[in-house]
Amino acid sequence: MAWVDGDNTPLPMAHQVADGMLGHEGRVAMGDKAGITSFLLQRPVVQLEGLVADNLMLRHIQRRDSLNSVLAEYGVDYLVVSLAETRPIRRNGCYEVVAPNPDQAGSSPVMTGRFCSEPIIHFETPASPHSWWHSLALETFVFDVQKEGALSASHSR
Q1: pLDDT tens-digit profile of 58-110?
Q2: Which residues contact 105 (CB under 8 A, 6 or more apart)?
Q3: CB-based contact 28:43 (threshold 8 Å)
Q4: Which of 1, 78, 104, 116 is deepest in the core (most CB within 10 A)?
Q5: pLDDT at residue 133, as a whole number
Q6: Is residue 11 left, alpha or beta, with left meaning phi > 0 and alpha meaning psi from -120 to 50?
Q7: Can you state the angle between helices 34-41 and 10-20, rounded to 10 degrees?
Q8: Mean pLDDT across the stretch 19-37?
Q9: Coil, strand or helix: which one is 91?
Q10: 55 — phi, psi (to 5°)?
Q11: What pLDDT is stored for residue 122 in this prediction?
Q12: Which helix (H) or strand (E) covers residue 128, if one does?
């Protein structure tokens, strides 16, 4: 079988995340594509879609809890957001992120978070002409959630 990593758009994206995260130790969270990313990072990833989540995460999703508070509760250091059809909304210098991504999760309940610092990693993975997954490029953002916590604390003072 003659295929390459680029034939499956999420795979080169996961490689780029793993390469970009070198030197960034800590817990990572993401929605779709967490499995291969976790394997390449060689560490567990908190999966935000509920597919392999504990009952507490499922309740958070069902209640549409704040993504920021859920990430804090799970001790997440970095949030990976990878989107094909939509882009995060940017208001007043902050990114508004929805997880799980409605374009991929359908009508499932979603959690919304706000991230006011620039992503530590931001890149686009071109769509493969042979991709079985999607015909669009993936745009990926990695947010430092701990930095966001520091920003929130400083804004409340």
Answers
A1: 999 999 999 999 999 999 999 999 887 777 789 998 999 998 877 776 778 88
A2: 31, 32, 49
A3: yes
A4: 78
A5: 57
A6: alpha
A7: 40
A8: 90
A9: strand
A10: -60, -35
A11: 95
A12: none
